[in-house]
Design brief:
Low-confidence stretches: none
CATH topology of one domain: Rossmann fold
Oligomer: single chain
Mean pLDDT: 86
CATH class of one domain: Alpha Beta
Helix content: 55-70%
Shape: elongated
CATH architecture of one domain: 3-Layer(aba) Sandwich
Number of helices: 18
Strand content: 15-25%
Distance between the termini: 27 Å
Length: 550
């Protein structure tokens, strides 16, 4: 569950700490006071993208931090795979929002959004107006049904989806093979010619042309190189007047001087080292000069090889690396053509066999869906009756559909809230109060079947009053026995059932601020009285007290 929410420089909030408890946490306040800011902050902590507009005006960044208590889930593997410290039952999720980025940290470690998404699936379910819209869309209904029935056929559905991925992959392969098999004989011959042309060149090194060009330069200038390196050798190491001879005399003089002044010993050592290095250089020059030869045969061989390589580069990509890449691609294309003609039938048989297996499994899943849909429909109808919709009929329709990643079913929630009306798609429920209660019924049923710790309702009481409010209050109170509930409400009957009551107030002086208080005792009674009557008077106070005593 969420133990604590910390906010700093977020929208209208300078700094705020809200400590939530188990059970029912209610948030009330005047219209426009900023109640949804708290819910939005929790949502944003788990969100993949965040607008920089949430940063308080004049501040550099906004920070949202959640302290989450984990007593249900073993997250050891998830944390280890992402390099996050596991601090036992407490998890600290921090979202830092700047004008250029939004970073998420868990227990101080920077994490990606996939990790945050997985974390949210364990701990949080937010029911907002946007989610009401999502719940009403048929495309989400099959997911809701499957999540509820995961213990019955969830594993089978996961295996089916893996098989379906394989089925799609094989279909893609078959399509490619059929395309390849349609190549004309002349296209195949030309492809074979290109492969043979590159293969026969036997290119082993993608820099061969550069190496050969350098070697060609040496052979073409062999005489000049021989002259330059040979004369350099004699200048260094000749018989008379050579550099080595001159340095030898200098070395003798410095050695004598060093015997008189030890400060010259290092200079003497450097000079000896220089002479040795120069002798090595001279030897290398002599060996290089002697190795040079006017090898006309090798010269012609290199020129012919470079001509062939240049021709291939012009045709197949500009560099030898590109030529080799083209060879790989052409070889694969040729192999695919040769492979396709003899394997299309084999692949088609494999696909047909896999499709039969998928259809069989999908039929089994479909049967389970239909059975569970009936059970779930009855449960939701019972919930709707408790929520003052006694004439409501609810049906989860499971109709056949073409084979896909979910099986062979189209699932849609149908409802009728009046005896005189036929069942219609959930999206066509008109009354806001009816929508709120239908959503609460669905959410209550699903919440009792999952391991989500915290369920958040943003104004679930929209459009209801009177007896319906009492029913919604009872249902939310019952749900809070199994989950931590955080909700925004305008209904005093619902607010009176709170285990902890937060009051949001907006103040305006030099700047607008939003502040949050925990209400107890007389302050709470006054807040409930204000919700009930719009103003605090003797009658509304007595009504508020009666609500708390219920």
């Amino acid at each position: 569950m969420i133990k604590q929410l910390r906010i700093k420089d977020y929208i209208l909030i300078d700094e705020l700490i809200a400590n939530f408890d188990k059970g029912l946490n209610v948030i009330t306040g005047e219209t426009g006071a900023g109640k949804s800011i708290l819910i939005n902050a929790i949502d944003i902590a788990f969100a993949p993208r965040v607008s920089k507009e949430v940063i308080k005006h004049g501040k550099e960044k906004a920070v949202i931090e959640l302290v989450i208590e984990n007593t249900k889930h073993d997250l050891t593997k998830l944390f280890e795979e992402n390099g996050v410290d596991n601090n036992g039952e407490e998890i600290v999720l921090t979202k830092e929002i700047t004008p250029n980025s939004a970073r998420s940290r868990v227990n101080g470690t920077l994490v990606n959004q996939e990790f945050i998404k997985n974390l949210k699936n364990y701990f949080l379910d937010i029911h907002s107006q946007h989610q009401t819209y999502a719940f009403m869309q048929p495309k989400y209904h099959i997911t809701l049904l499957d999540n509820y029935a995961k213990d019955l056929y969830g594993e089978k559905l996961n295996l089916y989806r893996e098989k379906y991925k394989e089925y799609q992959h094989l279909q893609s392969q078959l399509e490619n093979l059929k395309t390849a098999s349609n190549a004309t004989e002349s296209q195949i011959e030309f492809l074979q010619f290109q492969v043979n042309e590159i293969e026969s060149a036997n290119i082993q090194n993608p820099t061969e042309d550069e190496d050969l060009t350098n070697e060609l330069g040496v052979l073409e200038n062999a005489e000049k190189l021989k002259e330059l390196t040979g004369s350099s050798y004699w200048a260094i190491n000749g018989d008379d007047g050579s550099i080595i001879e001159a340095l030898g005399k200098i070395k003798q003089n410095v050695s004598k001087a060093a015997s008189m002044d030890k400060n010259l010993e290092e200079l003497e050592s450097n000079l000896i080292d220089a002479i040795e290095r120069l002798k090595d250089a001279g030897s290398n020059l002599r060996e290089y000069s002697q190795s040079l030869d006017n090898d006309t045969e090798r010269l012609n061989e290199i020129q012919e090889r470079l001509f062939l390589l240049d021709k291939l580069k012009r045709k197949y990509g500009g560099t030898l690396e590109s030529v080799l890449e083209t060879f790989d691609k052409l070889s694969k294309d040729l192999n695919a053509i040769e492979f396709s003609t003899q394997n299309i039938e084999e692949l088609e048989n494999k696909i047909n066999s896999l499709r039969k297996e998928l259809e069989k499994t999908a039929s089994e899943i479909s049967e389970s869906r239909k059975n569970y849909a009936q059970v779930l429909s009855v449960l939701i109808e019972e919930k709707l009756e408790k929520l003052e919709l006694p004439k409501a009929r609810f049906k989860i329709a499971v109709e056949p559909k073409e084979l896909n990643s979910d099986g062979i079913d189209n699932v849609e929630f149908l409802i009728s809230t009046n005896v005189s009306e036929d069942l219609k798609p959930l999206a066509k429920v008109a009354s806001g109060g009816e929508i709120s209660r239908v959503m609460l019924a669905i959410k209550s049923i699903f919440a009792q079947s999952d391991d989500i710790n915290t369920v958040i309702f943003d104004e679930i009481d929209t459009g209801i009053s009177g007896k319906a409010s009492q029913s919604v209050a009872d249902e939310i109170a019952e749900l809070s026995k199994y989950h931590q509930i955080i909700l925004i409400t305008h209904q005093p009957i619902i607010a009176s059932r709170a285990d902890k009551h937060f009051y949001v107030r907006k103040s305006q002086s030099d700047e607008t601020k939003v502040e949050v208080y925990v209400l107890t005792g007389e302050n709470r009674i006054k807040a409930l009285a204000e919700l009930a009557g719009g103003e605090i008077n003797e009658q509304s106070i007595e009504f508020a007290k009666s609500l708390i005593l219920q």
